[in-house]
Specification:
Blueprint: E1 4-8, H1 14-23, E2 27-31, H2 35-45, E3 48-49, H3 53-57, E4 62-65, H4 70-77, E5 92-95, H5 101-113, E6 117-120, E7 123-124, H6 126-132, E8 135-140, H7 143-153, E9 157-164, H8 168-197, H9 201-208, H10 216-227, H11 236-253, H12 258-272, H13 283-291
Parallel strand pairs: 1-2, 1-4, 2-3, 4-5, 5-6, 8-9
Antiparallel strand pairs: 7-8
Helix pairs in contact: 8-10, 8-11, 8-12, 8-13, 11-12
Length: 292
């Protein structure tokens, strides 16, 4: 079944995700803070663009969103001219932004008060996953709402999982980022060690890349890490934003994430090197610096 949908936020993730919805046959209206990008998307994909989130959401069955942080999300939902002012009874707001679990619960309650529903649905897979329609989606919310949204979410996803009640999707994304931080740091240290020891990186990966050390990061990043190429992918600034959310939640839960704090500090060093927009695999850059 095709639906009338809207997509708010056309960044490196939202732009291709909205494109997949259009290719799946849905009637798509987009909103972006930079109007020119929304106009370009509409021209490219044959959809419509709106001047405000509320206008984009007007009459939509599903409203999708992928913006920057908690404050950005509030600005396009409950603030003046936000999407919540345009959504009708029975509609569903699907938030793909990586945010705190707190704001997810807050907006879920606000949506229910207004007669529609809200699910938090952060994604993993990066820009390539968004462009190829191969994202993994972690969902928090009501099961009936999840089941209604699932066929639409599958337009750009390879896996969509209901984790639990509202906020659970965001908590799962925090776990995802904590795990990635540790894996990337381990890979960075291993490759830096190999370079100092004079090992051939290609032969090394051939030897260990199918065993217990294997990871997505190893498969997809070892070559660029060895080459010192980082001008792509998931930016360090974004990762630090995500880790800050996880560390704040950990403090609330009373658990120490020592490794995560350590790696977050290493990312701060990468930022000081000018690597704010480098891919997260740039952790190796600080080790290469130390061995130069």
């Amino acid at each position: 079944m095709n639906h009338k949908v809207s997509f708010i936020g056309l960044g490196v993730m939202g732009y291709p995700m909205a494109g997949h919805l259009a290719r799946a046959g849905h009637e798509v209206t987009v909103y972006n803070r930079t109007q020119e990008k929304a106009e370009r998307w509409a021209e490219e994909h044959g959809g419509r663009h709106a001047a405000t989130p509320a206008q984009a959401a007007d009459g939509a069955d599903f409203v999708f969103c992928c913006v920057g942080n908690d404050d950005d999300l509030r600005s396009v939902t409950t603030a003046d001219r936000g999407a919540f002012h345009g959504m009708g009874a029975g509609a569903v707001f699907v938030d793909h932004t990586t945010t705190s679990a707190e704001v997810a619960r807050e907006l879920h309650a606000a949506a229910r008060d207004r007669g529609f529903d809200f699910i938090d649905a952060p994604v993993s897979g990066g820009q390539a996953g968004a462009e190829n329609g191969q994202l993994s989606v972690m969902v928090g919310g009501r099961r009936d709402t999840f089941e209604r949204a699932l066929p639409v979410l599958e337009a750009y996803s390879k896996a969509v999982t209901l984790i639990g009640e509202s906020g659970s999707g965001q908590l799962a994304k925090m776990v995802n980022q904590v795990c990635i931080a540790g894996i990337v740091q381990g890979l960075a240290e291993g490759l830096a060690f190999a370079k100092r020891a004079g090992l051939d990186p290609a032969l090394l990966i051939q030897a260990i890349g199918k065993g217990a050390a294997q990871s997505w990061q190893m498969d997809n990043r070892w070559q660029t890490m060895v080459a010192g190429e980082f001008e792509f992918g998931f930016a360090v600034d974004w990762m630090r934003k995500d880790l800050a959310i996880a560390l704040e939640e950990a403090e609330r839960l009373g658990i120490e994430l020592d490794m995560t704090k350590l790696v977050d500090g290493y990312y701060a060093e990468v930022q000081a090197m000018g690597g704010n927009r480098w891919d997260t695999s740039s952790l190796i850059a600080r080790l290469d610096r130390d061995t130069d």
